[in-house]
Queue: 4 jobs
Job 1
Amino acid sequence: MDEEKQPMDEDGRDAIIISKVDIMKLADVYMLMKTDMIKIEKEIERSVKADHPILKEASLHLLQAGGKRIRPIFVMLSGKFGDYNIDRLKHIAAALELIHMASLVHDDVIDDAELRRGKKTIKAKWDNRTAMFTGDYIFAKAVEQASFFKDKDIHTVLSKSMAEICVGEIEQIRDQYNWDQHLKTYLRRIKRKTASLIAISCQLGALAADASRQDQLRLFRYGYNVGMSYQIIDDILDFTGTEEELGKPAGGDLLQGNVTLPVLYAMCEDESLKHEIHQFLSTNEREQQDITSVLDRVKSSGGIEYAHSLSKRYLQKAYDALEMLPDIPAKKSLHQIAKYIGGRNY
Amino acid sequence: MINVKHHTDELKVIEEIFAEKTAHPYLDVYIEKPRIDYDVILFLLEIIHSHQVTGKERREQILAALFINAAFFTHERVCNDMLETGERKPRQLTVLAGDFFSSLYYSMLVDNGHVEILPVFSHSIQKINEAKMALHFYEGDSERELMERLYSEEGTLLRNIADFYNESHLGTLAETFFLLKKLVNVRHETTDAALSTIHTAIYTCTEGEQADDVKNWPPENVANFLDRKIMELRQTLTTQLSSSYMKSTALYPRVMKWSLEDNRLWTK
């Protein structure tokens, strides 16, 4: 198949490989939502204009670096299943994108990252403290955007998700270098880390548009399963992608001690791999050939195929969740996005 | 006026919920537990007590304010210095712990139906971060600007909550009190560690140069500046406490004491 490699979301950790046809279909989805997306962009930009010049510059720095705005897209498409009003929905879309942005600013302090979306990170351009203040400021702006709504349910969903993302990241650090963890631990971690925010983007879009409870739940399920599939594929690509495709060296997760699904499966199949990885990571002078050897063992273990099959199962559940939704154009768009997100590198 | 016995019981309950909510088995290993500033509780009890809120609602709003303070306290510990690979984990968890505490204020307010007061909290956090940024990049231009930013950083949250409840006089008192308390603590610290944002801004203002760490804190000019400002704030506090209304509040003995002498961090 004619394939083209392109980052899906410029988070650094999100590079994926998709077909040209899927890219074109996705571009169509964006084109259809373009006018409303501009409104959301303007709302976010208005929101982060701080009084202090450096706080303003730092807040706009990340916003202007771009991004696919996949969460706002999910909010808008889900809003189509109810009483669609972009002047209401833009506040929830902005809140979710701001939460995502703020967590990226703090993630760069956590990862000591120099570059994001091809530009210097806030912590690299200024310093850690500037990044901390900026992230906290943007989080508060997200809550301010959400405050447009008086509906308690919207806030409850959002606040739970914010806590869940933090706990997910804390657990990721806790589970680093733990080679004996269970599949359930991995799945819970990626749910909190990635799937949760995508799931609530769909749910809140529907909720803010007063869609039926059933449709809210279906859209939540869709978002959750798409998010799970997405993260699993992302974890696969860390083993199978090249440095050029990923924007970082392959095996980066493993080097940081992050135990993802392919390696979890591989270690389960072959106990000696656990020992080899442990030895490799405890050596200060690592050779490129050593990581290549570990990556090759993971790839030949069947771990990649197993992860693909699990990702496919989540994707199928996402399609199933769409099944009972009314047949409107937004349903087709959600289907296309799921295909784009999950159908990679087969 | 607040019943003192009830007051003590309430402090205990707040303390327990705070400890329970901020506890995390993994964070607790690496992160210093956030402390409660009991004066924040005292002020908020006074600000809210005569209004149409239940005891439970009042407690939830106080806890939300304490979670915000915990988040600020924790994030203040993220410095700019370079770390070796092995030292990264505590910093990583410090960032995440602050975010976690911050998420607690939001859930505490929304889970219990305080959506009306939510913008007061989120707006205050924005303003405090504006002030922190201004202090961080302070270049020593004007002492007045420095003091405005310090007032803002230390007093914005209570000032805004007091305004929400139409208790502006208590908000003004809180601004003076918490800045005085902060400056007294900064004056008496003898740290050789990396300086906080406030330390750095005061140092820049008084010494005319910027520094990330200073041996033998406080240097002479800083000490003189702090002594002068502490004296001025004590005078302001005395004036603010002179009304018969203030004398009738449960805050009066505590705040009055601060207008006369150093009490520093208050533990029961």
Job 2
Amino acid sequence: MTRAIGLSFAYFGLFIWSAMVFLPLLFMFVSSFKTHGEILQFPIGLPSRLHIENYVNAMVNSTIGVSFVNSVIVTIGSLVFVVALSLMGGYALSRFQFPGNKVLLLGLVALLTLPVHALVVPVYYFMDMFNLRNDNFGLIMLYTAFHLPVSIIIMRAYFQSLPRAVEEAAQLDGCGTWGVFWYVAIPLSKASIATVAIINVVGIWSEYLFASVLMTSPASRTLPVAVATLGTGEGGTDLGLRFAGLSLATIPILILYLFFSRRIMKGIAAGAVK
Amino acid sequence: MTDSTAGTEARQTPVHRPARRRSAPPVRSLWSRITEYRAAYVFILPSIILLALFMVVPLVHSIVMSFHNWNGITAPEYIGMANYERLFSERRFGQAIQNNLIFLVLFTSCTLVLGFLSAVAISRRMRFWRFYRFAFFVPYVLVTAVIAVLWGQIYEPSHGILNTALRAVGLDSLTQLWLGNHRITMYSIVAIAIWQISGFTMLLYLAAMEGIDQEIHDAATIDGVNAWQRCIYIIAPMVKQITFVLIMLQIIASLKTFDLIWVLTKGGPFYASEVMGTYLYRAAFEQQQFGYASAVALVMTVIVMAVTIVYLALTNLPNKK
């Protein structure tokens, strides 16, 4: 009997938590089809009809569309660089006992402890000086650098765990360092490439602080910066537009998560503790 | 680098080189060893350059500027420790640290408890466990700025759904200025952070719990333990390691928190939700006090680094094989 009561409490808790996760999102999607007036008058409730024009407005008349493209470019660009450089760096640190190897590893760990938020003043100053503000490439380089320490360390740990037998065999067959790396090491690292990409993608896609100080012109804003101001500034408040923008920023991630949730969860769990 | 140069280089350099540095006498000069490993340096160099440009140089610059009066435009003027003296006497900075601590305590404890409990439910395969595992993690993948704007609308006093729902069920007395009342704004914000991150703690707990041997659970079942005893005496001790890791991660996240608060309240009303991050941002980009902001940043860095070093020692990250 007590067991049944305990169990129903547990299920009740799980139900409440699930509702708390989805109700705000439901509220967001429903509101994105309402007009500004409807949201003010009937905050809870369905729209009179589906006001698709909010989405059209968000994509065409506001800069959300541009920001979306910027975010995609910056995220993919940063991920490509992080993965490529961490593969190379992790491989070098794991496979070659070159002079300075240990020092570099220690340096990476030290950088790992550094809260990058605290670098916002000098980064802003230098990026401004070298005209890298409002420039996707500058932001890509910045994000790449910020995510390199943890990624290199993960890649190094992965290569440490990978037996060298295949690489040695390839070498005996006349493969050079670059060849071994390209044809043997990289194809064997698909799992760790996925891990590195997954643990970094949320952080890069969502990054707000640096994007908000560096990408100030409307045409260069990334999505987090754009949604933070959408529907408030020019032309007065439009809540319908605001919710449409929020939905647009959320839908792609939700779709990705829907398809890859197992993989994403595995990658994040692995990346956080290893 | 082209394939051919790398190839010639590698023929002289076997990939596998037994680490005999201690036993073997140093017959070759350092320089010859450096040139021998040229390929390795080529591999690691781009990373070193990026890290130097975007992290090391800014850090050093930040340290130097924290001893200067500097607005980012005119020439910096050396003022010794004045920025730090001001920082430690400023009441608003003390308040910011206090808010960071409120955030830290509530955020860490609540995300751990919620994460632990939901992970137990999922690992014990309660009905619809796959759904819970999917659902609870959803907020973690959303953009923090989006979450902030969305919850800003939920908390909005006149047409926000929280107050509207309370009024609809006749609980008008409970309606609040969730973000406008300086007494509760910090708690309203922490609630969002807990909402967002509990799925993450659940995930890590879950990974640890899936590793517990089923035989242990079977033995406990035979011994007739109830669900509560199972949580406290069997599961909790077996996931102790991950609990330490999570506490450290959440402490670091609490000290660094910025986006959520900045987008929601900008640290207001009247600095009631000011934390170190928003204080730093305000000093730098609203008041143009770059030197002072650098001092704030360094204090923040020292605190976070100290915690992180403890964390790294616990997880033994760099030595993981």
Job 3
Amino acid sequence: MDIRSQISMIFHLDKCIGCHTCSIACKNIWTDRKGAEYQWWNNVETKPGTGYPSKWEDQDIYKGGWEKKGNGSGDSINLKGAGKVKGFGNIFHNPSLPVIDDYYEPFTYKYLDLIEAKAGDDQPTARPVSLITGEPIDIKSGPNWDDDLSGTPDYARKDPNLENLSPAEQEAMFQLEKMAFFYLPRICNHCLNPACVASCPSGALYKRGEDGIVLVNQEECRGWRMCVTACPYKKTYYNWHTGKSEKCILCFPRIEAGLAPACMHSCVGRIRYLGVILYDADKIEQVAASDEKDLVQNHMDIMLDPNDPDVIEAAKANGIADSTIRSAQASPTYKFVKEWGLALPLHSEFRTLPMLFYVPPLLPVMASLGKSDPDQLDKMGPVVKKWNDDWLYDTSTDEIFGTLDQARFPIEYMANLFSAGDTAMIQARLEKLMAVRIYRRHVTVGDVSAEKSNEALKKAGLTAKMADDIYYLTSLAKFDDRFVIPAAHREQAIEMMEFTGDKKGSAGFGFKEGSAQRGL
Amino acid sequence: MFSGFSEQWRIPVPGTLLLVVSMAMLSDGWAQQPGEQLFQTTCVACHTIGGGRLVGPDLADVHESRSQEWLEQFVQSSQTMIKNGDSEAVALAAEYNGIVMPDALISEQQIRDVLNYIRVRSAGLKSAGGESATVAVQPAPAAAPASPEDIKAGLAMFQGAIRFENGGAACNACHDVRNDAVIGGGILAAELTTVFARMGGAGVKAILGQAPFPVMQAAYADKPLTDEEVTALVAFLEYANSEEYNQLPRDYGIGLFLSGAVGAAILFLFFGIFWRGRKTGSVNQEIYDRQVTSVVEDRV
């Protein structure tokens, strides 16, 4: 057992309101500079939709992530679009890179024209200008161009996750297109098996030993951009100004200071949680190469119980600090992923073992559209509204929360996103979410009977205590409950790298290093 | 005091007088044959008077076949005459493998002096009879086959790896020789690969000893090559000439361009196949194509 600690995240999608505050917080801190304007280390996508960059999930286009050739359990995995041989062959021409138009050409407006334009017959306008060329441009796209466009043929219907849904299922989805969509906030997953790290010809990317944050060493980066191809989530970006690649750093300077990352700190919906998870690094290769049907479960199993005495002992033997173990025991991430089994990784079929988990959105049906027939008309209550002779908008479900079968999103769609196509896993998680709601309805409003709520909890495999805990962490949790940040122990990490005695007796903080510039 | 003075100067005075007189006699002697020295420094590299052909023709009795005016013009600028189409000059150049006599940087008076010297010398030869003519011709000693050491030394000198004893510039500063052993030479002066064939060993030797070309003359004016150096360079040039047919031609004609074009086409084809699955353009291109663009009349 090679136990290591990983800072891991939970995004609770049922709570995301799509306000993009996280994106703005991140941009203001990290990417508001030349060459990084188009980089959205944190972005929020509308699903169904093509995301950012467009169709990033379609690895037939972008060749990201790992692929497993055979079906046997012994078969190893290789990078799909990079790696030693492919990377060397394509080192001067990387054929699967996204172009700027797959993102968007960053722009600003000439605001000064509004107040400095000479008097004329026309109202002065602030023309858009490219932040790359400085020339006036026609804005063709933006980072959230398809925001809320859940039914458009250009975006929603080209969502790569619709691929193996039957035409009938897709149609069912888009009949309700005006009301059915949800938001998917994305940052770097800080994967256990990061494809970007594996792809780098310069060895510039690394996964921090103490907390698993994946970083690009700007001193070593030579701008080959293999990581841009390799990352299946397209979360490494090439800075055209410095000639180096950059990515989400999980606000490690804030983490080291005990602060939550900016995106999490600023989250209006409080959908984000952060905590330590202990895992067994020996098993990474084996788990990443497991069969697709076992992938998610094996991914869950690689994470270890921080209260298990054996695990604690092995962790200590491996140099993990007591404070980190205590953080792991209090980690909200561990609770969501392992204890309660509510969260799932995004696109685990890319085999990078992402350590950002999502609680899938419930999107309960409050009403449904159905073909009206005379028998049903009899059951209509006062709230039923008749659209026309054939269709009606039916809110007369027999439950307050509709059954999952009537959910607005096909389970298959969620399964494509979060469980490598396994609908049972999604079903189980949605059932738990539903059970907690029914239980809380019983507790707070009381119009649901105790039997009904107990039945729901039992079916979902929850106890009343667990439901209360879930409710607390979902709805009432305070800062310190949502973000359990381990002490950084930078002094130990630094001492592993260099001899600090050199600095003893000398004053000051050393010299400022030059700012990032193009060149080697 | 006075007597002492005369004592002191008794001997120097006649000595000085003697010196002055002898110098006057010497300069007077030169004045009588002002062309001789010029001939010895400028012409002798390529020409003899009664000594047979060298690089250029034997000039004995040249007056009998050419007019004085023609000769003056030719010496002044044979190249202009060839350019102007003088039939005799063109024929001469053709006879001597296209080797054209360098334009003389001497005054008209000096040209007349040289021609005068040639006339006098020719006459002298005639009066002395055929015997002295044969004496004047010094048949080049049967050229001993150049030793590999000489060739090696010549190569080193040509490229400047070994310095000339008197500090002259290395040959490759201005000249080039097409040979595997030579890494690039100058293009300021003539290309010397086949100079041995064109001018012959004696010609090359004579030019190296006393360059007739103005620039070379100036460059080596007070830095003459020693005999050993000349021998080595001649040996090297002979070797370069003999190896000439082994060297790749420098002028590739249109073949180079065509082979480059065909090679590029093959490469493009290869890469086109190799990267046939590459991502081209944006995945959103279809959307962008439909978008209405504003007419940007002026780029502010």
Job 4
Amino acid sequence: MIKYQDFELVDFVLDESFQQWVLSPTQASDDFWKSWIAQNPERKKIIDQAKAIIKGIDYKKLSLSGPDKASILDNINARIKTGELKEELSIYNDDVLSDYDDVEETVIYSLRTKRKSIWSRYPVAAIFIGVIIIAGIWFFSNYFMSPPTDTSMAYLERSNPSGIKSTIRLEDGTVIKLNAESKLTVPPRFSEKERKVALVGEAYFEVAEDEKRPFIVTSGNISTIVLGTAFNVRAYPDENNIEVAVANGKVVVKNTDLSGKGQKSDSLILLPDEMAVYSKSQLATRKSGFDFMKVFAWKDDVIYFKDANVYEILETLEKWYGVTFIINRALNENKDFTVSYRNKPLKAVLEGLSFVFVFEFDINGKVITIN
Amino acid sequence: MEDLGDHKEHKNCKILKSEEVWNHFRQDNAKALGILYDRYVDDLYHYGQRITKDQELIKDCIQDLFVDIWEKRKKFPEVHSMKFYLFKGLKRKIIRKLIRNRKLPIDKNILEEYNFEIIFSCESELITRQISEHQQKQLLQSLNKLPRRQKEAITLKFLDEFSYKEVAAILSMSVKSTYHLIYRALGKLKENFPKVITFILLNSPF
């Protein structure tokens, strides 16, 4: 290695193999440089200085404290969870993602600053977007539905856990939006006489027209029979009522309870804006009007509350986002709240609620503690 | 020039190489994120201080960086040097944020408004043995007069132990000009060590 003979201090400092030897020596580089120094003892001083400079260079800096480190990591984890919710929601509604990004900005901002200050930047009005209808409360678990009895073929099942909605397109062109904690069972192929599906939970149907084959949704004792229309069926196992609400077209709702109690074989014909409500306790079906937004908002990814108290709201959010709330103190039950949220991250929703109902919250994965 | 992949970056972590952690990470192992975070958060925080003095902004950007790499984990097939990748990402985030936060019109030299101070590591006994206090002082004085970019290059090279190729990528310039940048910066050494054969110094710049 003749080249090193003429090296001055700065040349050594700049030489990459020299640097590598100083910073992370290997057996080979160590052997090389030690023998080189042995052969050029007069250069040892320069070598040592070059080493000292390479190793000694540093700069003035502060270090992160332990709590700082931990809180940054907590924020990262919280935001990752929010991001995953966003991903899930985007499955259904890609076109709202751009709006969503703005909301995400809000969330990021609020994660990093004292929560109070968010209100000075984002007027309360911006958070309370909606002026629409009533609160739906959902909680429950999935039960297995009674399988349709008319065939032994393998049925297809789509089952959503809490926090997840999905859209299903059937062979006949019917589109079904299945809500969280709901299950839809469909035969592998519809028969020539009818199109029959079974539902536990809630779903919105846009049934493709086919006058020769009625479309039938069975949910417990209630069958909903249509030719082609849009309607919502809500039949959660732990709710007393089964509700069938019609957006357009004509729907027949039939009580198929054969136990002999209550009304038998009563069937109702529903027109748009009409709803059939079947009471499991009274085994009776009645017709009523309904609030369109309350029933149909969910299919457009809108969470809607009208005059809802804080517990109703939190229960709904549990199902919608697939989270669990741990409530450590009594909240003001007497306050009613009306609001709608479209595709908002849970964090943003909670920011608003925590302001109205005066609580603090802590998101830790899927568990949210309220203090 | 060494390959990016040869870079030695985890002297203290023999158990699992960063790139292996990264692979776990890509397979959705959220724990791996915590490991990467613990391993690099100090280095990243320190690096941030070579770009801006705004400590809160650095913390925010570190947050954004880790959220980002988690969200994009599946899009990156392979990462040769995790540290390099993170440094580059952090720098980009800090610059973007600095520009966004700025009330004035965008100025290309936003980074040059700030400079950090090079010191000789106090732990290094080596330096006090080899270089007189006077020389050290002079050396630091001239190093600290350098533009921030040159100082960044020097610290990335010697302190963070990146290869010239990696330093070049972080600074967004060619390897050749990076080398010259560092060379020019350290040319100051020549002034402070004029032909130091004997080091009983006649070390007056005047």
